[in-house]
Structures are given as structure tokens and as C-alpha cells.
Amino acid sequence: MSDEQKVKKIIEEQKKQNEVDTQMSEDKTLIENQQFFVFDNNAKSSTEEMIKQQLRENAGNQTLNANDPENHISDEDKRRSTEKHQEQHVQQKEETPFHSFSDQIVPYLQPPPQQEVQVSDSPKSENVTQETEQENTEETEGKRAKEHKLTNSNSGVSETWNPDGGNTGSSPKESLESRKSWSTQASQSQNEKERRKDESEGDEGNGNIDGYTWRLCNETTGPDFIPCLDNTKAIQQLRTTAHYEHRERHCPEEGPVCLVPLPEGYKVPIPWPKSRDKIWYRNVPHPMLAEVKGHQNWVRVTGEIITFPGGGTQFIHGALHYIDFIQQAVPKIAWGKYTRVSLDVGCGVASFGGYLFERDVLTMSFAPKDEHDAQIQFALERGIPAISAVMGTKRLQFPSNVFDLVHCARCRVPWHIDGGKLLLELNRVLRPGGYFVWSATPVYQKLGEDVEIWNAMSNLTVSMCWELVTIKMDKLNSAGFAIYRKPTTNECYEKRNQMTPPMCQNEEDPNAAWYVPLQACVHRVPVDKAERGSQWPEAWPHRLQRPPYWLNSSQMGIYGRPAPQDFTRDYKHWRYVVSTSYMSGLGINWSNVRNVMDMRAVYGGFAAALKDLQVWVMNVVNVNSPDTLPIIYERGLFGIYHDWCESFSTYPRSYDLLHADHLFSQLKNRCKLVPVMAEVDRIIRPGGKLIVRDEPSAVTEVENFLKSLHWEILFAFSKDQEGVLSAQKGNWRPDTYQPSS
């Protein structure tokens, strides 16, 4: 199914949803230069007809002039019309999803025709064909978006849901009262780093970039610079690196304000799904991994192309056979149904996670930035979700009890040392009843060291009350694995003869994950039926659209409604926004989008609305925001905690699209925006897009920054309390380098 067909499918599903739920029966109010009229979704005039009418009016230069007496409607008339409109729909209003003015002004319901990108066997012709087609498509869409901006710059303000049921003309915002009901990572993580002082004063803090000159990061950093992982000064001051401290995050006190150079000969990435099997060598010019792991079918270099045969250390003959063999060993794993969200530790080039997409499984893959040259960069260039992280001295940046399955294939992690701290960290993030697949030589070899490790692991897993479900040998790959299952009750813990490892103290919050040191203790399993983790989520895809069973109606949601209602409204809101606006009105060709990040996810509604497209979304929950990340995992999506006052743990040029919903207006009160914008520029690819929805002042600041970075503004619109911006990164880089410190 093509992306165009998928877009049509999304729109059709939205229309069906509207008819079934009558959620979209509320009239839409449009204002065009004070011209006021009512538009009813259930009336004969459909959304598409309304948009066509807008196009006809724009094409015929029939834009109404507010200064013309014939077109002027008095404030009293508008007031009466508004009251009549509200009275007619007071019953339906309670169930109407919220949306903003920008959702109504989009002139295209269907995206422009998208050509399938053909990748030939010839590297030269492949590059020329791909670059030409993408440039033509992007030029056409950019032109349409600009025409859109010109013809609609004064139109559209919609009736917007807010906690009080009134009309605000802006997207839903967090309820201040609701913050009392939600914890944040900043408050949960007792060892969280001291936040920077407010530095909003001065040119850099308030977004004034007059006279600011961008420079390339100093020559020693190179095109693969990750500020929080390549902080040489901090790493040199470490007392020890025995527990991989040098692979952990060590962020500079001041975020970098320089730009990362492009690799020489950088090309437009090969699109998914072809990218799973091959990428451009010039985009990730690191041949060492091919030399070291080529015999295991990890990666090979062939001229201008790097290929990925789909193998791994434990599955040389292909990941799909290995994946299916795991399910044959334990049928209850049920890829894509029972098991939806998995974690791959020490993932290599992430072929395990890349092929699990075929089984409808979303995998968070991670590995450290180490001597295995750019393995995570390979994964991201392939279009496979991955982050740079390590099993070291601190907790992973995930909530507790969220992964359905954890996988380790020769991941080189010493699970059994230090009282089992590292395996106990997996126990923290693994869902009760979830599986741990350990594919390593101690499982099936009888060498002295292997036997020693196996005995230590056996003692540790028994003391952790993990059930050894099975041990299987894969004859095709001449390897084996052991599969363990985490308990669903605390009965075993209470019957242990030796309390080693000990139970965690009650005040030890299992959800605190931001710079929290590891502890060698076991967290109790949730058993209360109303508690998160006490029940397995619904099967995919039902879990995507239904509020989690543990989301309590007595708890106020982020936007001020009871939490389950808040969840449902957020989901319908983003389905509406994506289908009627993002798919066609912002100058974005979605066939060129694979790696997506929602920089300020709440319930994960934006990611859920993209379900039918061939994209994956990294949902980021900010450490100072309400902790909604467990909800995102519960619905079969994934994400991570982060503070955008620091750099993200990923390589440059990782993402095709970043989405920032009311992020920058919050950030600028906590840290300077210059390093934040430099970080945005770092992690997005040339040709990649940024969508911003925020207060008009914040949108204007971001737009000014982007212009200084030579980005192309595809769409910009502000009205009342909200602005929308769409922009595309180019290939521009400064000519001068930042001096070495």
C-alpha cells in the first residue's frame, strides 16, 4: 500500500469514526478577516467541499476585505451567532475532540502524487535518480506550502476545547491544577543533576540572534559529534572506567552552540524499506565494523554501498529465522500480539529490531558508542530505532514495568557481577510476566569461563524468582538461548531462604530514571488490580486507542479532564490534526519520512495517529513535565525521558522529522535557546523537517533561528494564542570553525 493510499485510509477511517461516535458533529467556526460563518461537519458541506470552496475563493481573488462595509459583521451580530451556535451543540460539545485553528486552514486533504523511489543496482544511477525525484517532490510541496501560506495568511480560527469547555482559539494546554496529580522525573529522581539557573537574560537567552555568527564545531569533534558522550574533558576526570562510566552521559555545563559538519560526499539517505538492507557508505563512512563483523553477516562494504545481510553474532543466517525460532520455543511470546514492545541490549547494527517490524513489534535498540564503530549510527541510517546508551552505573532512561520482552544476543554485559545490579535493572524495566531472551555462549558451551558464568547466572535468576522457561539450540545458527520469565506475584520473594538480592526499600521509586545510580535490590511486583503492571496490556492494536486500565477517572488529566477522557480526547485530537493538516498542508512528503521524534510527547497521541504510515516515533517525555511515559508504553508505543537543556544521546543526522508541540515556550524559561536550536540542527538530517506548534512569540523566535541556519520555511502561521511552523533543513554549513577550548 502506497503512502498516498495510507493517507486516504487515515482520512476514511477518520470520517467513519466521526459517523460512529458523532464526536465531530460540532460546528467549526472559521474567521477570515472578521468574516464569520458556521461550518457543520454533519451538514451536507463536507470538510473537503469546504476546502475546495476556500481554494476557489483564493484562486478567484475573492478574499473578503474586513474594511468593506458590506463584508463587515458587527460584534453584536457575531456574539448572537456564537451564542446560537453554542446552544445548538451544547450536548455534542462534551464529546468533541479539541483542535486548533491550523487544523482548519489546510487547503489539501490529499497529498500530492508521490512517486515510488526506485533504487537501482548501480550506485551512481541510484543516487542521481533518488536525489532528483526527492528534490522535485520537495520543490513541488514546498511551492504548494508557500502558496498555501500566502493565500491563507489571514484565515482560520477554530473552536477549541479547553478544560472549561470554552473557546480559546489555541491548542489544548496543560492544566496547572493537573500538575498536582502527576509526578515528574525531576521530582522522582532524587539524584537528578542540579538544573541550570535561569539564563533568560541577554541576547542568547531571549532568542535575539542579531549579530550571532554560527560556526562549525572545532575540528577535533568531527561529523559524528555527540556532546554528552564525547565530552573529553569530563571523561578524563573520571576516577575509574571499570563500570563503563566513560560510555555514560557527561554533558557539558553549557550546551554547544556550534554546528556539526557533514561527512564528505553526504547523500540523500536511501528510503525505507530498502534502507534496511543497504545505505550509502559516504553517510556513515566507517568500514571497521565490516572488517570485524563481516563474517557474521552484520555488515559489508561494496563500493559506494554498505549492505546488511540481516545476520548477527547469534543469528548468522538471518534474523527472521532466529525471531521465528524464539516464538516456536515459547509460543506465548506471540510476536505482535502478546509481545509488542521489546528492548534489545547491545544491539549491534539493530538487525533484530529491524526485522521485528515484519512481526509488528516495536523494538528499542541500544548500544554504547564504543570501539564498534558507529553501530547505532548504522541502525538509524537504516531506519531502525536506536539510541546510544550503556549498562553502566545508572538506570536506563525508561519507566519501570514497560517492556514486554528484553533481548540480549552476545551483548557483552556482565549480568552476574556486583550483586547482579545490571540484571536487576532489566528486572526493573521488564513487565511482570515478560520474557528475557539470553542468547550467549554460556547457555550452550562448556568452556571453563562459560560454565562459571552460567552457574552464576543460574543462582542469580533463581534468587530473583525468574522462571527458566526453556533452553533451545538453533542448529542452523549453531547457537542457543535461554528464555526466562519475570514473576507476576511476590509470593516467591516472600519464600526465599536468603534475601539476596534484598528487596528495595519502599521509598525507592522504581520509576525514577534520570541520573539515578543503580541499586542491587529487587522491586516488588505490583499486585493491586488497579495498579500499573498488575495486568498485561490488551493485545495490539487494541491497546493503542484505549485508555490503560490503571488510568484512574479520579485523577485529573494533563488538560484538566478526568484522565481516561483526557487520553481519548488527545487521541482524537491528533488523529484529526494529522489527517486533515499534517498529511498535506505543511509541505512534507511523507514517503521520505521514516525516523520521527515527538520532542514533547504527552499521551503519545501524535505517534498513534501515524500508525498506518511506515514510520516509527521516538516519544520524548521531558523530565520537568508530567510523567506520562508509562501511558505511552502501555498503548504499544515507546519513548524515553530527556531534558532538552542537554543534548540527546544520538548521532548527528538521525531523524527525518522532529515535532515540537508547545516545547520551546517552556524551555526558554529554563535554558538558552541557542544550544537547543543547535541540537535540533544536529540531530535532523539535511532535507529533514521540523514542525512547531507553540505560542506565537516562541514560533517567531524559532523561525528567526531557523532562518539564521539557512533553513527553508515551508509554512508559518500565527493567530491569537497559537502559531504553526514547518521548516526544512538544507545542506548549508558555516565556513569557519569554533576555536578549541
TrEMBL record:
List compositional bias (Basic and acidic residues) regions by residue number.
46-55, 69-97, 140-150
Q: Where is the composition biased (Polar residues)?
A: 59-68, 151-161, 181-190
One family name in Pfam for this protein: Methyltransf_29
Query: Which terms in the Gene Ontology molecular function aspect does this entry carry?
Result: methyltransferase activity
User: Which compartments is it annotated to reside in?
Assistant: Endomembrane system
Query: GO biological process annotations for this chain's record?
Result: methylation
Question: GO CC annotations?
Answer: endosome; trans-Golgi network
* Primary subcellular site in the record, as a coarse category: membrane
Q: How does it sit in the membrane?
A: Single-pass type II membrane protein
Residues covered by region (Disordered)? 1-26, 46-210
Per UniProt, the keywords (alphabetical) are: Glycoprotein, Membrane, Methyltransferase, Signal-anchor, Transferase, Transmembrane, Transmembrane helix
Q: Which InterPro entries match?
A: Put_SAM_MeTrfase, SAM-dependent_MTases_sf
Hey, which family's this protein in?
Answer: Belongs to the methyltransferase superfamily.
Name-wise, this protein is: Methyltransferase
Q: Which organism is it from?
A: Citrus clementina
Higher taxonomy: Eukaryota, Viridiplantae, Streptophyta, Embryophyta, Tracheophyta
